[in-house]
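Below is how a single chain appears once it has passed through the pipeline. First comes the sequence as given, then the structure the pipeline wrote out for it. We keep one example in the README because the format questions we get most often are answered faster by looking than by reading.
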Amino acid sequence: MSFSWSGPPSRRCSPIPPPTDNPVPPSGAPMPRVTAPAMSPHSAAARCHVARSTSGRVASRRWLLVAAPVVRTVGMALVVVLLFGGCREQRPSVVSTKPASEAPTPVPAKLDEPGVRATDFVLTDQSGEAFDSRSLAGKVWVGSVFFANCPGPCFRENQALADILREIDAPDLVVVSLTCDPDNDTPEVLRRYADRFDADLSRWKFLTGDMATIKTIANESFRLPAEVGVHSERGVVFDRQGRLRGGFHLLQADRVDLLKKLIREVLDEPADEPADEPLPATPAADAPSAAPSTPVGADR
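Resulting structure:
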């Protein structure tokens, strides 16, 4: 029996060539670049990629939320240390051995009555010359304590004093600044320090000397504490008779304004009022008469 095919003619298929490592099209042209199909946003792979990216961003935000307060706290602590602790960091402080009862009584902002006349003293100024406080007779003067290595408060304190001298341009107004670090603050160091403020050295004296003498002047006449590298930030005012009249903080603008007001009031007072001389010590019954008094710090 024979069969015959009445359908469409059969198609002859070419055999499938075996795979090669580097297929080359028959024309010899380079194979076209094959790229992966675009990832559908709804595919599982796309969802996984988005999830990973989102979780990474969330983790970064959480880290920033935790780290930011820590960074702010550390930064504020550094600022506080630099601004308010600078005077104690540059030089080691010497703790006073005086009992609390012997510490200087803080000077009030303004005394109701003139205080006792300041004790005379002799120190060395920024030019290396002897400075005798008796040269201040008949002048109004402001006393302060500082040291040249102090990075923050002392500079601001002396900047306020420089502003006062510029604003109150009176020849009878003098500023007397005592260093509380005399081992470092030699006359040469003080002269360079004065240059930073364009100080008029005829009206502003930067003084150094023996620390014990400086401490005595600060405690007893200025009524301010003074140790090596430790001091008050007040300026105290003395009238033409050398009597303490009050003092104000030099780092607060409103206090500085009150200090200027007090200085002007004292400058306007009559200059011919007699000074209150310190009472001499009473000698013992059989003791010989005392020698003439010598200013604190003077060569004996």
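The CA atoms of residues 224 and 247 lie 10 Å apart.

See the next section for the split statistics.
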